[in-house]
Write a structure and sequence with these properties.
alpha/beta; globular; TIM Barrel; binds zinc ion; about 40% helix; about 260 residues
Length: about 260
């Protein structure tokens, strides 16, 4: 069994085809998928998808790209929405200095609101970090110092130092299709240094499809390709990487029911 810890099934890329995509995922051994919220405003649509499929769960939160539009979202609101049985995580929130689609102070402010919600609910915070290693490390150090909260550095593409700090602070590191790309040798070196009990895999679909699908639309079934490269990278079998990442997933996503 594999798990796709991060995908975006609400994106228009998947409209009309969701049932087939979930079925293909199951056929590939992906028995749990977490569809990740990018706008609290659109949370009802995410929840409807999670409600429709037994294997699909969701998060609640505001992507850093949208942080400027959702500065009114409070920790209380996130905590309240997270009460739904299908909500298993908070986020994705974080800092994206690559695109800088929202002002950096708004991104940071949003991140703090989400951290507080993760701390209160005990649900893992899905962290998006891009080109923001130093500020992210500072915020994580400060905030874990005020009280621990579970978190994932999702779609990890930052530097070795942020991975090391994240792990030291109790976080998990999730690898996407980027790990499989030819020019990602440095990222594979980072993956080798992440303790096995902190590794996760994800697709971030519809983005970042691993080969042989690179450049095309990604979907949860393809998490198997990323898992295979991660297995190869750390020197374990495909069966072992499935066991490792799935055990890690259920340890972190405490609200997620295990398949019968
Ligand atoms: Zn992200
Ligand atoms: Zn995402």
């Amino acid at each position: 069994m594999l798990v796709d810890s991060h995908c975006h099934l609400d994106f228009p890329d998947f409209a009309e085809e969701r049932a087939a995509i979930v079925a293909r995922a199951k056929a590939a051994g992906v028995e749990r998928m977490v569809t990740i919220s990018t706008r609290v405003k659109k949370f009802p649509q995410i929840l409807a998808i999670a409600d429709e499929f037994e294997e699909v769960f969701c998060s609640v939160g505001t992507h850093p790209h949208n942080a400027g539009e959702e500065l009114d979202v409070t920790t209380e609101e996130l905590v309240r929405l997270a009460q739904h049985p299908k909500v298993v995580a908070i986020g994705e929130a974080g800092l994206d200095y690559h695109y800088d689609k929202a002002p950096r102070d708004a991104q940071a402010q949003g991140l703090l609101v989400h951290i507080a919600a993760a701390r209160q609910t005990g649900l893992p915070l899905v962290i998006h970090a891009r080109n923001a290693d130093e500020d992210m490390a500072d915020i994580l150090k400060d905030e874990t110092g005020k009280g621990a909260f579970p978190f994932i550095l999702h779609c990890f593409s930052s530097g070795a130092e942020l991975a090391r700090i994240g792990v030291e602070l109790g976080g998990y590191v999730s690898f996407s299709g980027i790990l499989t790309f030819k020019n990602s040798a440095e990222l594979r070196e980072i993956a080798k240094d992440v303790p096995r009990e902190r590794l996760l895999v994800e697709t971030d679909a519809p983005y970042l499809a691993p080969p042989p699908h690179r450049g095309k639309r990604n979907e949860p079934a393809f998490v198997a390709q990323t898992a295979a490269v991660l297995a190869d990278t750390i020197g374990v079998s495909d069966t072992e990487i499935a066991e490792i990442t799935t055990a890690n997933f259920f340890r972190l996503f405490t609200k997620m029911p295990k398949p019968a």
